[in-house]
Amino acid sequence: MDDRTFDIAVIGAGPAGLAAALYAGRSLVRTVVIEGKAPGGQLLNTELIEDYPGFMSILGHELATQMTEQAARFGAEMVYAPAHRVRVEEDGTKVVETDAGEYRAPAVIITAGGNPRKLGIPGEEEYAGRGVSYCAVCDGAFFKGEHLAVIGGGDAAVEEAIFLTRYASKVTLIHRRDAFRASPILVEEAKKDPKLEMLLCTVVEGIEGTPLDTGDHSGKVTHLRLRNVDTDERSTLDVGGVFVFVGFLPNTGLVDRHVAHDEGGYYLTDPYSMMTSVPGIFAAGDVRSQLTRQITTAVGDATTAALAATKWVEERAKGNPDPFGTFMSASREGGWVG
Ligand code: NAP
Fold first, then answer.
1. What is the largest distance, in Å, between two alpha-carbon atoms of the chain?
2. Which one in 58, 238, 314, 337 has a CA-CA gap of 20 to 30 Å to 198?
3. Is the CB–ligand 1 distance for residue 156 below 6 Å?
4. pLDDT band at 217, cuts 50/70/90?
5. Per the confidence metrics, is the pTM higher than 0.85?
6. Sorting pLDDT into bands at 50, 70 and 90, what band is 1?
C-alpha cells in the first residue's frame, strides 16, 4: 500500500465521521478521514450539548476536540482538504478526489453532513452576513440588545431561539404552521422564556433593510415582511437580525454514479450495515435517510458503518465479491428507490 491507499476512507469529520474513524481504527484497518474544514462538523455550531449520554452538558467544540483526539489515538489519519468526487473504478476501488490529491480505498463511508436550507425569499441572499444568519452560536453575539427573528418550527429553530435570548432584547419565533415539529420539551421551555414570543401561521415573504448599494457595506436588516397564512393579513416586523432554521440539505452529490436516495436527497442505507445501493459505499449521520438526526444516532450508525465496512473489506480480500449479498438481499429485493 502506498501512503494514499487505505482500507477505508471516511468523508467528513463530524460526529459520524469521527465515530466511524474511531471504530475503523480500533479494528486495525488503515483509515483516512478527509475533512474540508475543521473537525467537529455541526458540533462547532452548537454551544451546549445536553443530550449526549455520559455528559450532563458539554460544549460543542469540547466534544469535537475529544472525538478528534480519540479517533487519532486509534490510528485514523486526518487529511484537511475538501473532497470533490468519489470515483468508482471498474474493480470496485473508490477514488476520493480532493484538493490534496487522490485517496484510494475499497470502502468509503460518507459522513459529509449537509448545509442549512435557504428560504429563497427576496432579501435573504442580499442580506446574508448583514443580518441574515444560519448559525446562532457563530453570529448571536453580534446582535446584543437587538430584537431578533428566528424562522422555523423544528428542534433547531426552537433551540436556537432560546439560545439567542441571551443576547437579544427580544426573540420572535416565526413558524408557518400552528404546531411545532420540535420536541415538546423544547417548545415548553421556549414558552416559559419571557424574552421569547411566538408568531404562528405566519410566513416571511421578504427581508428588507437599509440600502445595500451605497458601497460602504452599511446595508443591514431592519424589518421583515410577514403574511398570516390563515387570514392573508400582511404586516411588517422590525428586527435587527433574522436567523433561519428551516431544515437541512444533505451533501450527497459526491459519488460519480447513482446512489439510491429518498425524496429529500438523503441516502437510503441497508439497516444492517449502513451500506448504500453502491457496494462498498456506506453512509452515516445527516446524509442518511432516517427519522431523526441526532449526535447519538449519527455515532451509532457510524459505528455500524465502520464495523460493516471493515468486514466488507476483509471478506473482499478473501475473494468474496459480494460479502453482504445474503443479508442485504432482503432490502435489495424490497427495491431501492430514488
Ligand atoms: P426540521 O426538523 O426539518 O424542521 C424544519 C422546520 O422548518 C419545520 O418546522 C418546517 O416547517 C420549517 N420549514 C421548512 N421549510 C420552510 C419554509 N420554506 N418556510 C418556513 N418554514 C419552513 O429541521 P431542523 O430543525 O434543522 O432539524 C433537523 C434534524 O436535526 C431534526 O431531526 C432534529 O430533530 C435534529 N436536531 C436536533 C436537535 C436536538 O435535539 N438538540 C437540535 C437541532 C436539530 P413544517 O414543520 O411546517 O414542515
1. 68
2. 58
3. yes
4. low
5. no
6. low
